[in-house]
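Quick log. Single chain, no ligands specified.
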Amino acid sequence: MENRQNFTDKFDWNLAFLLLLFLAVSILGISSAQVTGQYAGRNFMFMQIFWYGVGAGIITGCLFLEPEQFKKLSWYFYGFGMLLLVGLLVAPETIARPINGAKSWYQTPAGPFSLLNLSIFLILILARIVSTHHEKVTNKSVQTDFTLLIKIGLVSVPPLGLIMQQPDLGTTLVMIAIITGIILVSGITWKIILPVYGSITLFGGTVFAFVLYRPDILEKYLGVEPYQFGRIYSWLDPYNYSSGEGYHLVKSLLAIGSGQITGKGYQESVVYLPENHTDFIFSVIGEEYGFLGASVVISLFFMLIYHITKTAIDTKDPFNGYVCAGIISMITFHVFQNIGMTIQLLPITGIPLPFISYGGSSLMGNMLAMGILFSMRFYHRDYMFSSNQN
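-> predicted structure:
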């Protein structure tokens, strides 16, 4: 009886409830998407419930490990992730089949395994590096901050380089967002951060200007193929590319716009949008439930991010805090990019909407992140005369 009460007190029921709400939204969206999508008649809804069940198993497994054990195992997770990335370079197409021009999936009996799952491994190792650095360095200076930045770079560059070889722009951007988020909370002085990210922003802006006005230079000196500019051009002017690169965006804008304030109702969508059960699930929600339904979905993500932030504050552990910062960066970027691409705010990339888009692979990675959060809450202890925890 005591163990049961102990479990009830320590289990994160608020996070569990949020995940149940995401499951409900996902089921509603996917069941509607099946009506108008090219996969009409398929049971994606039941498969999504199955994947949520597998995710619950992952969370249960995480409860057997304390956060300190995740910290100790972080190098092994990172090494495993690197082996998977290297394996993609040499794996035959029967094992790693290119999808949409990117060789970033392993074909398994249970379905494709995406590289997005490796993001949580990067979060764990970066959190360990930053927390360990601050434990050892007592006198903080520009030099020690620069050393920390080099450590972060040495760990981050290898996976980024391998992913860019696939090429997989979506996963690359997610990992850059994670690295940026952890750097911003790592305590590194702005005297270093501003010049570094200022230079990166300037470089990115210059490349974008060349794409718009002098693409021939990028083709000549960087070997960029002309078709690779299509995603940018179709983003800026989708209606001139509506029969090709801009088709998805035009249909997405039509679906969301036609939903107006309250939407057309459950399974009343009429706009045909390919892959609407995966990357464009938000378009389905916008059409059927309108501005109000879309606002509810966005509010759920705000509640999730708030809860993760509160977990970092309550547990008072540096490693936990950096892990939470990485998870927040990962989820925030996913949400901002996925919703942004459906409303022409950002270019289209193959990044799903967390917990809502159909797909066992991306859901497993997110559930692993949630499992680590459950572990933080489960093993957190408060002490009367100390702010520390074991």
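The two ends are 25 Å apart (CA to CA).
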